[in-house]
Design brief:
Transferase(Phosphotransferase), domain 1, Phosphorylase Kinase, domain 1, single chain, 10 helices, Ser/Thr_kinase_AS, 6-stranded antiparallel beta sheet, alpha+beta, ATP binding, nucleotide-binding, protein serine/threonine kinase activity, Prot_kinase_dom
Amino acid sequence: MWAKRALSIGRPRTPLSGSAVSNPFQILTRDLLVEEERKPNYKPHHFYPVQLGEVLNGSYQVVTKVGYGGSSTVWLAKGIQRQLFPMPWKSTRYVTLKVCTNNHADVSSALHELEISRHIASSNASHPGRKYVRTVLESFEIAGTYGNHLCLVYESMREPIWLPKRRLPDCRYPSSLLKSTVWLLLTGLDYLHSECHVIHTDIKPENILVRLESLSVLDDVAKAEADEPSPRKVLEDRTIYLSRNNFGDPKSGPGRPVITDFDSATRGDVSHPLTHPIQPDPYRSPEATLGAPWTYSTDIWNLGLMLWDLLNEDSLCPGIDPERQRYTHRAHLAQLIGLLGPPPKELLSQGSKASQWFDSEGEFKFQNFIPQGISLADTVTNMEGEDKKLFLEFASKMLQWLPENRSTAKELLSDPWLHWFPDKE
């Protein structure tokens, strides 16, 4: 749904190539904060003022805005120029462009993603998991009024994995769909871990995208933008568009998931322990929370928690503190203890931050925060019988306190739950 507060009706400045009409669009009031303006520490001069219809790098014409963040805006674009020596992917009509801010930290993050992407691209491309990892295709810079902006080019995807969940009955993945999705993600993780020696560190629903079932979906998006242009806020030095990121119901079955966003990824084949802060709050592994060394198995923990995001309406351990009404580490640890039991002293002894929440005997300091009378099995309500039993055994191999006790992606691919279906009972 578009925002409803409009000031007036205008007309597009630059029609897209191939569009026959220039339909009116909705202009939003200036006092309404939209899109990237709502991000903390937003500074307009950090963002390049992309215009619909603008041609970037002489190769890509902007079709519509599809997303935004604190460090970039994201656009669907159409290739308009054949290269002298075209890359195989350049036969695709559409790409997704991430136009980064000119903020130094954001540029460093984007350059890091570019470096990781190049490393992944140089790894074994014959591994079946390569198809389930999206990396940067190419990059270029554009000049803005307040500095240059790095642009990253990606294969276009349909949507994040949480969006098709909303179309499913009860907003939950059925067991059969969950199995196929997890199997493909584990195949991608095995490729990253065993072939590329890369730890993603940020596995969450927003970073798992679904492939397009057909490129005609993007033709439909381009037509929709021409027929009903995106609402926008027009300012003196820029136009802020509302994102068009719902591509409608799929024309065929569920698309295949792809692991994306490598700006937080790190190489695992290093000689020193990895202890720097990683992972979003609800998905953070125990070792990362406690300040202990982490490695590839931290991604396995991430994926293990994400299973519940697809299976249920709520996260398994959101970590909302009953006193502070926001995420806290103590609330998150308490929820984990309630489900998995207390962490081993062996793990606590490695954690530089463990003393904040555990005493010298390994006792949790906030016992009253620990949920009582609930088990992991109680949180799985749409499976039953052998399927539920096998699922819980599968999940328990991922949700182990000790990182070294978690199964690898390769080991999990042969787990009985992924290969058991009711008709085989």
